[in-house]
Design brief:
The protein has 433 residues and is α+β, with helices and mostly antiparallel strands. The chain has helices spanning 13-19, 36-39, 47-59, 76-87, 94-101, 103-114, 131-135, 160-173, 178-186, 192-195, 251-268, 302-309, 314-321, 357-366, 405-418; strands spanning 4-11, 28-35, 67-69, 121-124, 141-145, 155-157, 201-204, 210-219, 222-233, 240-245, 273-282, 287-294, 337-345, 349-353, 371-374, 393-402, 422-425, 431-432. It contains 15 helices and 18 strands. Helix 6 (103-114) packs across helix 11. Mean pLDDT is 94; it is low at 429-433.
Length: 433
């Protein structure tokens, strides 16, 4: 029986290895609509050229074209509905995906169904010198572009002076993602009030508490959530320290989050697509807050599911790409708990040395199931890294499974003891992290 050919937008070796291990891949051949190098760590995004390249890769393929998918944020998740429509494949509509991806448009749609779970929000133009006054928001509040990922250009604003200073950065750097995103909006028949709006940033009143990501999917209108992952921030609370699965929140709170996410996803009209929804539970007020909905699986969570469920949620992505209803994910993995740790530094500077092969080999010998991914190279300045938040720089990712949280912490401390980065900090003496 011939295999199904599924094209991945942004295919990379790490995820390809995990994709090949899921049961849904047994009857599939996996191909790159675009390579990861086309959409990550690039100087700029030429959206029309990237779409043309993906279309050409699929049209030139000598065989059936049976599905398209991506586990990446911009532009990967946005290209999926474009390519699905072009080749008559299962997938979500472009308008529904954009209603997730466009942060202001998404808030307008969410407001129709879950207004009680939303902060106060306003759109604004960073080029408007009177933007702060027009917002009529009392600091502190957060700002971010209408399109971003991994907290890029997201700032906590504490006063008018800081807002004006931050605007300089926003004006200079928004072109990397916001303008290519707007280029894509202009390519399709979408509401003019969204496409032509001059406001490219959104401001929101603070929300907080315990943060979780709900991994789910929509199949033929039915919204299913199959996993809740804790998003735990590092010391200081501004950058993520780790993702941990399963969530430690009480089940009653998790179900309240799931109910809110189902209503919001339904209001947006997303269908035949995976999604992940980020929410908070504020214990002090007993409120559920919705941060955002992303129309894809989170590739940062794939190892967590593999360690606890026995297979990664690439399984869900592949089934949906082929128009099939995903099977439930069981707790059939080798571990009871798993975490994706992010090794960070708040200091800017140039990397002069990273952990050597011997250190990585010692970790592998002591912890065979632990994965260490070094995110930097010697000679690289941390300000050159893409996709970073505004408060720290990611040096490495450490993926660990364990019996319980105590063993998880012990394993992570053992890994950190082997990971040594030399950093020549800006205008300071070299330090060892």
């Amino acid at each position: 029986m011939p295999k199904h050919n599924v094209f991945i937008v942004g295919l990379d070796p790490f995820n390809l290895e995990r994709l090949k291990r899921v049961p849904a891949a047994r009857d599939c051949e996996l191909h790159a609509a675009l390579d990861v190098s086309d959409i990550r760590h690039v100087d700029s995004y030429d959206v029309p050229a990237l779409i043309d390249k993906a279309v050409a890769a699929m049209e030139d393929f000598d065989g059936s074209i049976d599905g398209v998918a991506s586990y990446w944020d911009f532009p990967g998740s946005l290209f999926v509905p474009v390519l699905a429509e072009r080749f008559g494949l299962p997938g979500p509509s472009l308008e529904a995906v954009l209603k997730c991806e466009h942060k202001y448009w998404s808030r307008l749609e969410q407001q129709k169904a879950v207004a009680q779970h939303l902060p106060v929000f306003r759109a604004f133009d960073p080029n408007d010198d009177d933007a702060f006054g027009k917002l009529q928001l009392v600091p502190p509040f957060w700002i971010k572009p209408i399109k971003s990922f991994r907290s890029y250009l997201a700032f906590q604003i504490n006063d008018a002076h800081q807002f004006r200073d931050v605007m300089q950065t926003c004006r200079q750097e928004q072109g990397h993602i916001v303008e290519p995103f707007r280029d894509l909006l202009r390519m399709f028949e979408l509401p003019a009030e969204i496409v032509d709006m001059p406001e490219t940033f959104i401001a929101e009143t603070p929300i907080g508490g315990a943060q979780c990501t709900l991994e789910g999917y929509v199949y033929q209108g039915g919204v299913v959530v199959y996993g809740v992952v804790d998003s735990i921030r590092a010391a200081g609370g501004l950058s993520f320290g780790r993702y941990q699965y399963p969530s430690s929140l009480p089940l009653e709170i998790q179900h309240r989050m799931i109910d809110a996410a189902r209503l919001a996803v339904g209001a947006i009209g997303l269908d035949n697509s995976p999604f992940n929804a980020e929410l908070y539970y504020d214990q002090s007020t007993d409120r559920i807050w919705l941060l955002e909905i992303n129309p894809r699986i989170s590739q940062a969570h794939t190892d967590l599911f593999e360690k606890v469920a026995g297979i990664s949620h690439h399984e869900v992505m592949l089934d949906l790409a082929l128009g099939r209803k995903p099977s439930p994910l069981e707790r059939a993995g080798h571990f009871n708990v798993a975490a994706h740790f992010m090794v960070r530094t708040p200091d800017a500077g140039r990397i002069t040395a990273v952990p050597d092969d011997a250190a990585i080999a010692r970790i592998a010998e002591q912890q065979p199931d632990t994965v260490v991914k070094i995110a930097v190279e010697p000679g690289q300045h941390l300000r050159e890294l893409q996709g970073q938040d505004q408060y720290s720089f990611e040096l490495a990712q450490v993926l660990i499974g364990a019996r319980d949280e105590m063993e998880l912490a012990d394993k992570y401390r053992a890994v950190l003891a082997e990971l040594h980065f030399d950093l020549e900090r800006d205008r300071q003496e070299p330090v060892i992290l």
